[in-house]
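Readers of this paper often ask what the protein records in our data store actually look like. Below, we set out a record of this kind in full and without editing:
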Amino acid sequence: MELRQLTALVTVAEVGSVTGAAKLLHVVQPAVTRQIRLLEQEFGLPLFERTRQGMVPTPAAEVLIMRARRALDELERARAELRPEPGEVTGIVSVGLLESVLDILAQPLTDAVAERHPGIELRLFTGYSGHLQHWLDTGEVDLSLLYNLSDTPSLSVVPLLREQLWAVAPPDAGLVAGSPVPWATVLAHPLVLPVSGHGLRALIDRARSAVPVEPRVVVQTNSMLLQKNLVLAGHGWTVLPAAGVAADVAAGRLSGAPLTAPDVERSVVLGLQRRSRLLAPVDAVSSALTRLVRELVGSAVWPSARPTGRV
């Protein structure tokens, strides 16, 4: 097995065709076909099905592609880390970000790393906490923001902050950040909520169970953006972390206020793989992210949040 075979495999899987892969790799099409055929001969299994939609990986190929992509990423990291400028931290760092913090964290983090460590290439991944934790466990990301998590055998967790959940409604509802909204008021409206099984939904269900009002859930979704759009379209109210709606409330697109009776908080933590020592670029990005969270909480850009741990 050769690196060019793995490169051909991953590229064909990503673009869905041998022709497209050949163009990206700057080789002729038969060369890519030959690399795939050699891999199929080595493993004794077909790796792609040719369909009208293009080259579709077989189940066996999916396993190999996942491992090949990781091996190629590690080699790329090694090249970056072994050729640094004197005194410069270089490398590739994959960061997991919760969907609810993208608006206030993604660009400032990118700016901070570019300014302090221009030799680091950031790779930002977004998802729900459960997905991010899985990617951290499997090594697909180097560090990740998570919520309501303690240390595990494979992960080290640094507490960062606690934030209140907010009721979110159309602008004409007139919710104001300085006037908390009781759950009973929220439950009197149709609700657009995260799907069952989502970590945020578990917090919501636990809180509303303490209020003797039966909720009317009209839509469930796994997209925070869709939650907000459906509220804006008049389908109901929703519940979200303050960070996820701060920009919308400030712009007047939505109105929002902290929930009370009962109060509901989530803890946001930084998850890291347990290692004897962090790689220099991972440590640099971890420090930059922690510093940035401290600044956002201290300046109230991250609303309804209070620091915990070393932040």
User: Anything to note?
Assistant: The mean pLDDT is 88. DSSP finds eleven helices and 13 strands in the chain. The domain at 162-266 is CATH 3.40.190.290 (D-Maltodextrin-Binding Protein; domain 2).
